[in-house]
Inverse folding.
């Protein structure tokens, strides 16, 4: 694998092509991330439409609806809170299972198993949506939320096996851009097909993208093995061993991981509060699932457009020249500005615009910056602690701030966004703590 030392000339796209020529594994990694996010974003608008649906029988199974009605609870007023609560407990169950998988089996086994599981379950959802099974919305919401976190967490952990820290700072912006292009394609496919072929057939489209991901994993594993041998690192071709709860133990024990977890916690909190407010607006404006699916696909397109511009124009430059500090702090500043505007004027269009800005800054700057840290630490940190942060901590934040939003929303949108300002400030403090701990990591040996 060649070192990523060139600064690149010409256009941003030209720089990406130049990076591909210098690093063959970057080509396969880019294809991997492109297909992964294409497959996810084909389905994300379906999730949003299910969560915003006014038809309870589409979302929930009939016995659950009857149970809530029998206890005098208006389920339609607690859709997102109920879904996020269930997802958190699902994560608590799945995290030890994932920990057991990565502890007991080598990389060549657990990576295909994770993606193979998602492919098989997609075929099951094809049947559910094709036959109109009641409660399919809830089941799909649970599945795609788990899929998004585990599949992406596994991807970034694997990339830290393939690339060094120097390469990560030079390449992760381009790698993220490849994923963003895939995230562009997904909503386009959904917008073009959903009203023609129906939601069920979108499951098969997504499964096809995940099959390509499996091929990329097989090819990239060869470079991961070569890098480990070259640098005399512990091989990922042997089981890591340890406890299934090692990830959570590491977060409790290690200061850097604690700050990283807090940053994710508050960052997700800001996004959840904004997402819930947007969902309540969509629920009022749209009653047809296909129409709301199309709306969310347009929002995703706007997010991905801004993300791609930043990734190609700024991410690599910031990480290579200044390190991770600007990439971690700029999103916090942007979110604080956005929530300040919303606290003064919470108009629906403004909510959508701040949603685009918030998600784009996370995907293009904060996420790549955090992931470069994992190239400098032990594999237990990235496969176990990193996965625990991206699953349990992430969904714990979803659960917590879904209910925080519910309470604050009783006092109006202005109070919701003032609360979001406090959370955004806490996220920025956590980023500063993470930067302080990151400086203590040992430097990487030269390429």
């Amino acid at each position: 694998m060649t070192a990523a030392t060139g600064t690149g000339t010409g256009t941003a796209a030209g720089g990406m092509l130049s990076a591909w020529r210098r690093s063959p594994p970057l080509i396969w990694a880019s294809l991997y991330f492109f297909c992964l996010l294409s497959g996810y974003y084909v389905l994300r608008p379906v999730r949003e439409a299910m969560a915003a649906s006014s038809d309870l029988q589409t979302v929930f199974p009939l016995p659950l609806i009857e149970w809530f009605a029998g206890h005098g609870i208006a389920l339609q007023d607690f859709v997102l809170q109920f879904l996020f609560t269930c997802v958190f407990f699902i994560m608590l169950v799945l995290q030890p299972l994932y920990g057991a998988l990565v502890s007991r089996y080598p990389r060549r086994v657990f990576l295909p198993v994770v993606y193979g599981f998602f492919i098989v379950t997609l075929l099951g959802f094809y049947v559910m949506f094709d036959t109109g099974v009641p409660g399919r919305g809830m089941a799909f919401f649970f599945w795609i939320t788990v899929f998004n976190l585990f599949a992406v967490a596994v991807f970034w952990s694997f990339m830290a096996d393939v690339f060094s820290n120097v390469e990560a700072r030079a390449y992760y912006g381009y790698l993220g851009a490849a994923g963003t292009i895939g995230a562009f394609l997904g909503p386009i496919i959904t917008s073009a097909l959903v009203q023609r072929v129906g939601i069920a057939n979108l499951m098969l489209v997504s499964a096809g993208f995940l099959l390509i991901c499996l091929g990329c994993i097989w090819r990239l594993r060869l470079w991961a093995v070569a890098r480990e041998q070259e640098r005399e690192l512990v091989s990922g071709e042997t089981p890591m061993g340890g406890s299934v709860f090692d990830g959570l133990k590491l977060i409790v024990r290690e200061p850097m991981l604690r700050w990283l977890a807090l940053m994710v916690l508050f960052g997700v909190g800001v996004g959840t509060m904004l997402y819930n407010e947007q969902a309540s607006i969509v629920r009022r404006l749209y009653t047809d699932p296909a129409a709301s699916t199309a709306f969310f696909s347009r929002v995703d397109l706007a997010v991905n457009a801004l993300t791609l511009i930043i990734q190609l124009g700024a991410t690599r430059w910031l990480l290579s020249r200044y390190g991770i500090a600007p990439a971690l702090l700029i999103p916090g500043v942007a979110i604080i500005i956005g929530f300040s505007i919303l606290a003064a004027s919470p108009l629906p269009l403004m909510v959508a615009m701040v949603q685009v800005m918030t998600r784009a800054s996370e995907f293009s700057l904060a996420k790549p910056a955090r992931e470069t840290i994992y190239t400098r630490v032990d594999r237990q940190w990235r496969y176990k602690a990193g996965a625990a942060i991206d699953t349990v901590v992430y969904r714990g934040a979803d659960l917590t701030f879904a209910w925080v939003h519910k309470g604050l929303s009783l006092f109006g949108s202005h109070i919701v966004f003032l609360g979001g300002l406090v959370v955004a400030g806490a996220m920025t403090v956590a980023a500063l703590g993470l930067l302080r701990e990151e400086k203590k990591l040992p430097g990487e040996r030269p390429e």
